[in-house]
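G., before I forget:
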Amino acid sequence: MSNLKSQIRVAILGYGNIGRAAEEAVKAAPDMELAGIYHHDDCLDKISNDKCQISNDNSQFSILNSQFSNAERPVDVVLVCTPTREVQKFATVLAARGICTVDSFDIHGQIWSLRTALDAVCQANQSVSIISSGWDPGTDSMVRALLQAMAPKGLTYTNFGPGRSMGHTVAAKAIQGVKNALSMTIPLGTGIHRRMVYIELEDGADFKTVEAAILADDYFAHDETHVIAVESVDALNNVAHGVNLVRSGVSGETHNQRFEFNMEINNPALTGQIMVSAARAAFRMKARGEFGAKTMIELRPIDLLPGTIEQNVKALV
Amino acid sequence: MSNLKSQIRVAILGYGNIGRAAEEAVKAAPDMELAGIYHHDDCLDKISNDKCQISNDNSQFSILNSQFSNAERPVDVVLVCTPTREVQKFATVLAARGICTVDSFDIHGQIWSLRTALDAVCQANQSVSIISSGWDPGTDSMVRALLQAMAPKGLTYTNFGPGRSMGHTVAAKAIQGVKNALSMTIPLGTGIHRRMVYIELEDGADFKTVEAAILADDYFAHDETHVIAVESVDALNNVAHGVNLVRSGVSGETHNQRFEFNMEINNPALTGQIMVSAARAAFRMKARGEFGAKTMIELRPIDLLPGTIEQNVKALV
């Protein structure tokens, strides 16, 4: 094909940290074209892309519908970069229109239910939804599956960080007297984590009272937690994250098989990139008639990569 | 199903280090039954399995044919654990009979040609051959593909060892004056390796002459190589091996994304286990009508694992 960039048309829904990272990854992909970016809120100043469509009426659906209908060529895949709790709503509407979606839905306990619901919509409408395709859940899940296949008996420990926990940060911010907060996850091994909670106090708030409230919160009560007052949480801002995933297991009857996967990464950049690579897999699976909702452990690694099977087998196997 | 062990009937062809390890992994698999072991040579004493069929006439084909025809239930997958240069011969005959095969063919430069040849046979006879499914090529290839998808620009270095190199050991043994040899691969980083060659000299052989011949051999001439005379190579025997696979790359426009995969393993035990896990994938792919020859980067990780999609998604994603 003479214009590789136009092979796969990708749109981005939601233009936060991950949406912006995904935009960079789409632009860097040799076989993808950015079809549009869709966002609804009042942060117009954050957006400087001529393909960006803004809605203040909270109704992306109509914008998406009109854009996708009017386009000279249909959008192949929409990257759903909304907050995780809004993923199902948008992915369902898109899948029902036969448009593939990719999300990085990250509530581990609800992944199977999302997969079940979206799978039915995809099967009925000949679309593909790749769900939970960030790094955890996502590529870490693929590594865990691979290590399980290499040593079926044993224990895998996923140690996160050092890096910001979104859930714990939100929980700390909700405590009375906290103006701003950052909860860092520090790995202590065997899946045990320390929480380092940096807080800016509201005027007049008492540190000891706030600290006690944080330590009593269910998010923090079960882990070693340290609360530290700082002048500026913003001054600590850093999207670095990481993982140390270890398994010791048994292959056949042979014990003491040891495996380790480490990474130190920019969190939104990696998440956006993985979603873009998963969009390629969704496009190819739809072309082969493999409809449905899938998690990343259900994808072929080669489908994530540009290039032909021959090129990738020769370069990577 | 009441008897999970009988879901997949697996036979082993070739009863060397890997065949024996594969036997243990089949027996440990909750969904596999050992259908038979086929071997031809005179090392009867190595074999203590009542399912083992021995041929001294170098014609496994006839044994395989009669066994598979007479069996109450057909063999689903044959693990081809022969020397790598004999893989294509056996896999071709089996695939032509509609029987799935798995091998750990490890000559990197010839993998695409093996895949092309076997793919045609598999497509024509509705079988599946999973090729080069050891750890490198194999699971390392899957990790390389995954890291490429996570950070498309950058460099991956695969550092092997410390562990025995089969190819270099054979090359050292072929030098005149060498009675027995062991060539260890020592990783020096960035894909550069040292060769530690331990040799037992023939009676009357001159160490300096043998050392010079080894250093001049094309297998050793390009790497830092040390030759050491020992009383007994057998006393050094150890099937430990390992890998340190590192990538620093770019996700989207974000540089300095760092990844590392390490393992320290029993080599034949891991290879046998990976072949058994790949046999499960072959069985499932055939059941879905996905015929052909595939490398491991073309497999879904979930297909390597026993259990349902729901069980594995809930446990691993």
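The mean pLDDT of chain B is 90. The longest helix of chain B spans residues 267-287.

More on Monday.
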